[in-house]
Specification:
By secondary structure, this protein is mostly helical. 84% of the residues lie in helices and 0% in strands. The radius of gyration is 21 Å and the shape is elongated. It starts with a helix and ends with a helix.
């Protein structure tokens, strides 16, 4: 990965992370202060809590991506230490899907006249879980690469002994 790519990715991560922290702070302030009256169409307090939790899942994933990019730059990504971050990303994506399903359940009673919205939201939740499965496949590829790297190191060591 080139330096420009790493810098661009890190810049995007910093901007998005700062923005999400700002939104979380605003949501938390709205929860604590109670200044925003609910109009009765949707319970805002649970929605705010789910939003704060959902943003938190994205933040966990972004921090883990930052750590993986650091490992790529150092050339240490093909190690067992990388699995901790990939597993955390998978967990964050699954948690995001669960939060989305909770939002779908919260929204469903208001959609009795048009259940298609609830079905679409459920489909989006399944798509989020699909992303977790894709990352799980990539984790398997990482495991194979780590195994090959260990195997190559052992062969080099054996070759060094022979020489």
């Amino acid at each position: 990965m080139g330096k420009l790519t790493v810098r661009a990715l890190r810049a995007v991560l910093v901007v998005v992370l700062a923005g999400t922290v700002f939104v979380q702070a605003l949501m938390l302030w709205a929860l604590i202060s109670g200044n925003d009256p609910e109009d009765g169409s949707l319970p805002l307090t649970p929605l705010r809590v789910f939003t704060i939790l959902g943003i938190g899942t994205a933040q966990v994933a972004m921090v883990c991506v930052w750590r993986l990019v650091t490992m790529v730059r150092r050339g240490t990504v093909f190690s067992h230490a990388a699995f901790r971050y990939v597993d955390a990303i998978i967990g964050a994506i699954v948690a995001a899907a669960l939060v989305w399903f909770a939002v779908t359940a919260l929204n469903a009673p208001g959609q009795r006249d048009d259940p298609g919205v609830t079905l679409i939201m459920g489909g989006v939740g399944l798509a989020i879980l699909g992303v977790a499965l894709i990352v799980l496949v990539l984790r398997t590829l990482l495991a194979q690469a780590v195994a090959r790297d260990v195997e190559a190191a052992e062969m080099r060591a054996e070759l060094d002994e022979v020489i």
